Prior knowledge:
Layout: H1 9-32, E1 38-39, H2 41-48, H3 52-60, E2 67-69, E3 72-76, H4 77-86, H5 94-105
Antiparallel strand pairs: 1-3, 2-3
Amino acid sequence: xxxxxxxxxxxxxxxxxxxxxxxxxxxxxxxxxxxxxxxxxxxxxxxxxxxxxxxxxxxxxxxxxxxxxxxxxxxxxxxxxxxxxxxxxxxxxxxxxxxxxxxxxxx
Length: 107
């Protein structure tokens, strides 16, 4: 038995509007969690649990997001968090693991 649902454009728009209304509080809460505090080199080194020289090396190579004011390097914590997440390794899904197991057993 096959059921078919036919919706008008107005009904679809109403559904979309209701979904958006329900998602908006979660989106706004996520924006509020953004931490725009400013760290100096020693604060960033402590946050990342690395040596300050490691920070200086990356600032010289422009490999880490920073703000330079005079002789001071400053770091917005939210920018650092975004920078860190760019290199995060995503876990494999159980489906890809299962798929790979079957491929190896075919050999």
